[in-house]
Amino acid sequence: MYKKLKIVNHARILRVSGFTLIELMIALGILAILVAVALPNYLNTMIDTRRADAKIALTDAAARQERWFTENNAYTTNVNNIGGTSGTLESPDEHYVITITAPCGDTTCFTLTATPQGSQADDTYCGNLTLSHLGEKDNSGAADVDECW
Q1: Amino acid 105: pLDDT
Q2: Domain boundaries, position 77
Q3: Rounded to 5 degrees, what angle do the CA atoms 68, 74, 76 make?
Q4: In Å, what is the CA distance from 70 to each residue of 1, 56, 63, 115, 119?
Q5: Fewer CB within 10 Å, N- or C-terminus of the chain?
Q6: Is 5 inside a domain boundary?
Q7: Span between the terminal Cα atoms of the chain, in Å
Q8: How much is the mean pLDDT over the chain?
């Protein structure tokens, strides 16, 4: 009634699969090349993006200067009068510090300067961005004004 089962053990050949050291070194080399190309592009893109922070701060400070002029019939060189605290005015994301100068020597004109700070200080391409009471835009770097603004 019962059948006897015959158990047969067949020898199995086990193959270990994986990567060789050469394959891993080639993969790491390719990865290093990709990082070497991508990282500088990423950092430059971040610097370019942070410039918008300076543009926002400069146009806002210029609007506040115009408001100050309407109320006082003169521009101010004190950043506390246009929203600064303790003698400093920073951009919204704090990548730039805004200063005010009066290049004409009196209170009938102003120039706002956004100086990069922190990680943005590496921006030597555009450098400091400036905006005058006439709306004239400039930068201290080697780049063209249109590229920075």
Answers
A1: 87
A2: 21-148
A3: 65
A4: 112, 21, 11, 27, 37
A5: N
A6: no
A7: 94
A8: 90
